[in-house]
Design brief:
heterodimer; A: 7-stranded mixed sheet; 8 helices; globular; B: mainly alpha
Chain lengths: 389, 89
């Protein structure tokens, strides 16, 4: 079981996509596990042939516990690194060490065809101990909704069906956020910087682009912010990477986690791989797909665990400033408030302008305010030439 | 191509909505209330929703028209009109 973030201790196996004897290639999805951040697709990091599936569907497996063994390398599927592996840096042997036997949870899936259901419905059904398969298709699309589950629960309660009550554990997102943020506040000596950035050109660029392009190619201002952060990190690399075992591990790859709010509560930050190298339309589609998968509760392992820095952007209609908290083991996080129109000085005159407040929280064990300031100045400079992003 | 009925459109639009926002509860949807108020829709949701409508119905909604996609009933009216224009041309 790979660690899908410093805040994860275990996960429940919900599905195997392979069986013994199957050939697998690096990057293939071999299993799905359920965590507080939804169902995560587990990828394999080497070519090989699956030998045995050790964990069964329904098993709760601790991080480092064995999921399966495969040949080709003679190693077991388990401890993928926490970071998105730059090729060859995976450490499968890390998970091969003996660990406590997996604690068996009640089965969550019997391998029967999966009943379509929203994540909110799935979660509530699990809390109430309701089998989704007994509910039948609720909605025209065939997917069971939260409402279907609540109604079934009301019927069940009336009929005296026992409820197992809410279960805490690896899928309790609020507890997991609390754990990660408490660790950040306890261990990371944060420093904070903020600046106001003129977004006039960036906003105009997006409006003109969108007027000229089909809906499938449109941009949001947020994607320019992510790209500017990724490019600025090339100049200030001490904000990009991890603090592990008492030292900074810089990351060559710039994988920007895009903090995404979930309607059922909580948030996740799927990683946009190599964001500094992607053209804006590509990055936009990647962001859209990641947000959709995050909200559907179905992210890939590399998306969930691969971010080397996080960007938290409030989008439209919110407040001007947010003061973000670093997500360990990362060493920096960038916040953007909503874009607002404010009086702004240009060439000695005051005129209305679209502006955004950018904030940086960074780890003082790795960098200091001077470098952080240079980083935000670079983000500002990049956003003044949106056509070059 | 024949223009679908409003009921067919409503079903397809609802389907598009759930494909981009699988965490909303369709059973509690109020067809006349703004998605923004009901489901906390943001600009990303509107863009993805417009993209899904384009994929399913072939309607390319200009950005300035996004506000008209704010409610389920508004969407049905807007898309029906756009398809009629398309069928007529």
């Amino acid at each position: 079981m790979p660690s899908l973030g410093a805040d994860m201790e275990s996960a429940v196996v919900t599905e195997w996509m392979v069986k013994p004897g199957d050939k697998v290639k690096r990057g293939d999805v071999v299993a799905a596990v359920e965590t507080a951040k939804g169902i995560i697709d587990i990828e394999i990091f080497e070519d090989g042939v699956i030998e045995t599936l050790i964990a069964r569907v329904g098993d709760c497996v601790p991080v480092g516990g064995l999921l399966a063994s495969y040949s080709g390398s003679g190693k077991a599927v388990a401890g993928a690194p926490q970071a998105m592996p730059p090729a060859r840096s995976s450490r499968p042997e890390a998970g091969a060490r003996p660990t406590a036997p997996p604690a068996t949870a009640r089965p969550v899936d019997t391998g029967a065809p999966r009943q379509l259901a929203s994540p909110a419905a799935r979660k509530r059904a699990a809390e109430l101990g309701i089998d989704l398969a007994t509910l039948g298709p609720g909605h025209p699309s065939g997917a069971i909704t939260l409402g279907d589950v609540e109604r079934a629960a009301a019927r069940g309660a009336a009929a005296g069906v026992p409820s197992t009550g809410p279960s805490a554990g690896p899928t309790d997102m609020r507890a997991i956020i609390a754990q990660a943020m408490s660790r950040a506040k306890r261990e990371i000596p944060h420093y904070y910087l903020g600046t106001t950035i003129d977004m006039t050109r960036a906003v105009r660029f997006v409006a003109e682009w969108n007027a000229a392009h089909s809906v499938t190619e449109r941009l949001l201002p947020g994607v320019l912010l992510i790209k500017a952060v990724a490019l600025a990190l090339e100049k200030v690399p001490e904000l990009n990477g991890f603090w592990r075992d008492g030292r900074f591990e810089p990351s060559e790859a710039i994988n920007v986690g895009a903090a995404t709010r979930l309607r059922r509560g909580g948030l996740v930050a799927p990683a946009l791989e190599a964001a500094n190298g992607q053209p804006l339309p590509t990055l936009m589609r990647q962001l859209q797909a990641a947000v959709e998968r995050a909200r559907a509760g179905r992210l890939r392992q590399t998306e969930l665990a691969g971010a080397t820095i996080t960007v938290s952007s409030l989008g439209e209609g919110g407040v001007e400033t947010l003061y973000p908290i670093i997500h360990p083991p990362q060493v920096a996080i960038v916040g953007f408030g909503s874009v607002v129109v404010r009086p702004w000085c240009v060439g000695g005159a005051v005129a209305p302008a679209s502006v955004v407040t950018a904030t940086l929280a960074a780890d003082h064990r790795v960098s200091d305010g001077h470098r952080g300031s240079q980083f935000l100045v670079e983000v500002d400079r990049l956003l003044q030439e949106p056509e070059k992003l | 191509m024949s223009v679908p009925t409003d009921d067919e459109l409503r079903a397809t639009i609802l389907d598009s909505l759930l494909s981009v926002a699988p965490d909303v509860d369709a059973a509690t949807l109020d067809a006349r209330r703004e998605f923004r108020d009901q489901f906390d829709f943001d600009s990303m949701d509107y863009l993805s929703f417009a993209t899904a409508l384009h994929a399913r119905l072939g309607v390319d909604v200009p950005e300035v028209d996004y506000p008209r996609l704010g409610t389920l009933e508004g969407c049905v009216r807007y898309v029906a009109a756009a398809l009629r224009r398309g069928a007529a041309s």
